[in-house]
Write a structure and sequence with these properties.
- Strands 12-11-8-13-16-17-18-19 form an 8-stranded mixed beta sheet, sandwiched between helices. It has a 5-stranded parallel beta sheet with strand order 2-1-3-4-5, with helices on both faces.
- The chain folds into 2 domains: 2-182, Rossmann fold, CATH 3.40.50; 192-287 and 302-402, 3-Layer(aba) Sandwich (Rossmann fold).
- The longest helix has 20 residues, at 383-402.
- The chain is built from 14 helices and 19 strands.
- Helix content is 33%, strand content 24%.
- The chain is α/β, with parallel strands linked by helices.
- The radius of gyration is 24 Å and the shape is elongated.
- Helix 1 (23-33) runs parallel beside helix 2.
Length: 404
């Protein structure tokens, strides 16, 4: 699957001022060999190390350099490239461009392109070992990682300056392999994926409710990854304050009953259903018309009734889609997940531990993924990248099931 991940992907390759810029020529070739389309953007200092003509010849596309190019700006060149890219890869990435990205600068073409794009960004650092270990550089890298930027490398060894240490650009073949691992294969163009995300709120009275702690971040990240894979995507979202990923249809709901109804209405042509929402298991049996007053009450007793199980309802359909469930547990995570996989007739389940600053409302997560014939652990990573890794697994198991 990894070797297919870049097939058809549109990659903007940023080349910055570093002696390692000569390796970008080989990197263009490696990316094109695995089926990627490549547009190169160079900083002015990069042109001192390698000519634009070399990279233009290898990529088959004009090389962009100037932010204020009269020919390009008539079509808003940096915006056009920002929308075109499936990935932006900066290799080599100098200490300067890393600092500029961390600061949100936009005074040259490459930095403006990165700031204007919603596409995933990867940087492959290349610099002197002392520059790499400098606290300023490491602080800037920490900022980028927190924003979900992928850092590829660097390697350690002999450097052009005659010193040794960490800071060497990875070899082009290694960069291409790592980018392939990070990317989601574009193999779902004719598939329809429905995803649930966020909590549900079950009213007690006009101002109070029972709900879950879910922020919806993981579900929205999965929706973004599914769109990157080429699928038509609908996300059915509980009450969350998140931006809708580009190209994704969004339907907002509040209660478990509303989510149940919308999900079943969306199943007619659904190929893959991913139940990422933290749906309330119970709702108040009676909703008070007016606000319950605290005065004179030391205790309040609520009678609760179970909500409808959305995943079980989908799994019981005659022509059910490929179903991926989620299990958020505070203990015995694997055992509960495996039981849920079997009892609910799921194709896959992704389990994670929650509580004590794990799982909900945080930007990083880890998953243990199970299916009837196997399992895989996805280590702690930003949820955006974790969702891509999960989607790659889903594609593998979906294809395996439908090829038999």
């Amino acid at each position: 699957m990894a070797e297919q991940a870049l097939q058809g992907k549109r990659i903007v390759l940023g080349v910055t001022g570093s002696i390692a810029a000569y390796k970008s020529a080989d990197l263009v070739r490696r990316l094109r060999e695995v089926g990627a389309q490549v547009n190169v953007v160079m900083t002015k200092s990069a042109c001192e190390f390698i000519t634009p003509l070399t990279l233009q010849t290898l990529s088959g596309q004009p090389v962009a350099i100037e932010l204020l190019d009269a020919d390009q700006e008539s079509a808003m060149g940096h915006i056009k490239l920002a929308r075109w890219a499936d990935w932006i890869l900066i290799a080599p990435a100098s200490a300067d461009i890393i600092a500029r990205l961390a600061q949100g600068r936009a005074d040259d073409l490459l930095s403006a392109l990165c700031l204007a794009s919603e596409s995933p960004l990867a940087v492959a650092p290349a610099m002197n070992n002392k520059m790499w270990s400098n606290k300023a550089t490491q602080s800037n890298l920490a900022i980028l990682r927190k924003r979900g930027v992928q850092i590829i490398g660097p390697a350690s060894g002999d450097q052009a300056c005659g010193e040794q240490g960490e800071g060497r650009l990875l070899e082009p073949v290694e960069i291409a392999i790592e980018l392939s691992r990070l990317a989601v294969p574009t193999t779902l163009q004719d598939k329809y994926i429905v995803i649930t995300a966020g909590p549900t709120y079950e009213a007690i009275d006009p101002v109070r409710f029972i709900g879950n702690r879910s922020s919806g971040k993981m579900g929205f990240a999965v929706a973004k990854a599914a769109a990157e894979a080429g699928a038509k995507v609908t996300i059915i979202a509980g009450p969350v304050q998140l931006d809708t990923p580009t190209g994704v249809q969004r339907i907002d709901v509040e209660t478990a009953q509303q989510m149940h109804e919308v999900v079943l209405d969306s199943m007619k042509s659904c190929n893959i259903f991913i139940a990422c929402a933290a749906v309330s298991d119970y709702r108040p049996l009676q909703i008070e018309t007016n606000k319950i007053k605290k005065a004179g009450r030391d205790q309040l007793q609520l009678n609760l009734t179970a909500t409808k199980d959305i995943v079980s309802a989908v799994a019981s359909q005659e022509n059910k889609p490929f179903i991926v469930g989620f299990a958020a547990e505070t203990q015995q995570v694997s055992d509960y997940a495996k039981d849920k996989l079997k009892s609910k007739n799921l194709d896959m389940i992704a389990a994670n531990q929650v509580g004590e600053e794990l799982g909900f409302s945080v930007d990083n997560n880890a998953l243990d993924v199970f299916w009837p014939t196997g399992s895989q652990t996805l280590p702690l990573a930003p949820k955006v990248q974790l969702a891509r890794d999960l989607m790659t697994l889903i594609i593998e198991q979906y294809n395996a099931k439908n090829s038999t």
